[in-house]
Amino acid sequence: MSKIYISGKITGIENFAELFQDAENYLLSKGYEVVNPVKLNHDHDKTWESYMKEDLKALLDCDEIYLLENHYKSKGAIIEKAIAIELGIKTTYQPSRNNVIV
What we know:
Blueprint: E1 3-7, H1 16-29, E2 33-35, H2 48-60, E3 64-67, H3 75-86, E4 90-93
Parallel strand pairs: 1-2, 1-3, 3-4
């Protein structure tokens, strides 16, 4: 079973927890062991840098990264994606919900 880390925009997104939970539910249904950064134990000073350090530790323990549709709008997710690519961690993208077949 592959361990997969969810990456996407959190800051400034009102329903970020719901978006990450939906992704987690989807990935669980596909048989993944899921790391949802929203659910990590962030016992630190609550700065952006501290969140990123904890999240990156969790990412490095995973086989894959799952990039939410909004990942490109997040400085943190862009960093996570770059690290994953450079380290050869498999990158998977959330299917777009905005695709329209014409």
